[in-house]
Amino acid sequence: MPNGVTNSYSAVFDLNMLAYKVRQEKSDWIGFASSAASMGLILLAGRLVDCFRRPRMAALSTGLLIMSTVSFVWFTLICELPGLRTTLGLYLGNVLGIAAQTATTPLFFEMACESAFPVGEETTTMVVTACSNVFSALFLTALFFPQMGTRWMNYASTGSCLLAVPLVLRFREVYRRREYDLLATESSGASVQA
Q: Any transmembrane segments, and where (predicted)?
């Protein structure tokens, strides 16, 4: 859910910012900074998961979703209360929210593949992508109703991350594929030594 909503939110971010009297050029640079920060945080999150023998992808995803939720709440307050609005605040709120949420994407795919094993990765990722696209389509469909305006977009991004937190907290991590790979590695190492 947060992947689909936030990806669509990023695509129409400049429309959202027009409602708050933020120029398109500034909103474009905020979007660029969000994309750049997302790439860096994705690499950092992947490295953190790889550092542990028993990865804790759900815990890291929960932390990132909480960070994203707090950032989006902050960003929404900055947008809604003009007295709080600063360029730095707009940048930090959006960049942290988008980057933290985007960093969960590969973790969600990996958790899904681990949990669904021995179902093929292509099938699992297709289902996760389809679910994400449903939420993305719902978000974008709302734009067909101009009477709704665009202020709801900040609340939708905040809400999607917030709603995902209890779902990820309840998720029971299993590492069937990883255990299978480790067993296969150990058995092939034993046969080479014999």
A: 29-46, 58-78, 90-113, 125-146
Quote the domain boundaries for residue 41: 2-191
Assign 117 a pLDDT band (cuts: 50, 70, 90).
confident
User: In whole angstroms, what separates CA 79 from the centre of its chain?
Assistant: 21
Per-residue pLDDT of 47-63, as tens digits, reads: 888 887 666 888 899 99
CATH code (residue 37): 1.20.1250.20
The two tokens of residue 26 are 């500034």
Taking only Cα atoms into account, the Rg of the chain, rounded to an integer number of angstroms, comes to 19
Annotate 111-178 with DSSP letters as a single string. HHHHHHTTS-HHHHHHHHHHHHHHHHHHHHHGGG-GGG-STHHHHHHHHHHHHHHHHHHH-----HHH
